[in-house]
Amino acid sequence: MIIDIHTHVCNKKIWKEYQKESGGAVEKIIAIPYFDKNSQDIPRIPDVEELLEFTDSEPSIFSLGSINMDSDLESQLARHEELLREDRIVGIKLYTGYQYFYPHDEKVIRIGKLCGKYKRPLIFHIGDCFDPEDRAILKYAHPIHIDDLAKLCPETNIVISHFGFPYFLETGNVVASNENVYVDISAVMVEFDTPEATRKLQEQYRDDLRRVFTYFPIIKNRVMFGTDFAGENTPLKFVQPYIELIRAFLDEEQQKNAFYKLAEKLYFK
What we know:
Blueprint: E1 3-7, H1 12-22, E2 28-31, H2 48-55, E3 61-66, H3 73-85, E4 89-94, H4 106-117, E5 122-124, H5 144-152, E6 158-160, H6 168-177, E7 181-184, H7 195-215, E8 223-224, H8 240-249, H9 252-267
Parallel strand pairs: 1-2, 2-3, 3-4, 4-5, 5-6, 6-7, 7-8
Helix pairs in contact: 3-4
């Protein structure tokens, strides 16, 4: 069994493309919304309300929530608590870097405590930002700030997306230091302009992970499978290379954790 905890599958067309690319190996996926309706991604990522219109009718697809840190927090907290209580979302994603806040800010702690109340994870975009408008500020998306939040919200499970690319060692350090912090492997292996460039990128990611796992072997038990799949006509088009990555670095029990056990524990408990 495989659960993909990080996708942007937001309509039937992309879902069919995902199933084709995965070869039917993935049984459940989690779809992630943007924090508002103004996503610059291609295809555009919907907000949570629009995404739920799709996922509510798809038994194998589950939605996260997402909160706009620049809008009214109270109303969004109330709405997300309603969605958590009704099991319509399985966690909340925040976009540090794209929005200007630190993971340990007081308003984030309130969101973290809400997730802890319903035993659902709080997920962060960490690391590099897709930023065609040149608006992202990277200092907010550094993994070191997760260390503060993990200690301020010890009852909340926290997920660092994209292995914190390119801050792999820092991410490994934070995960190793906090039992409530997990990491996914999504998004790093994108399609470049040429097959050779794509191959070199995938090889480099393997080298980087090999280094991290050498320094912090304990974190192999807190790695989860994710792809960031967004469609076959986007750079985020791969599924199988991420499956192969898990199998290359983790032993049999660790693979079970990465492919589905941790996802069941954090998102579906």
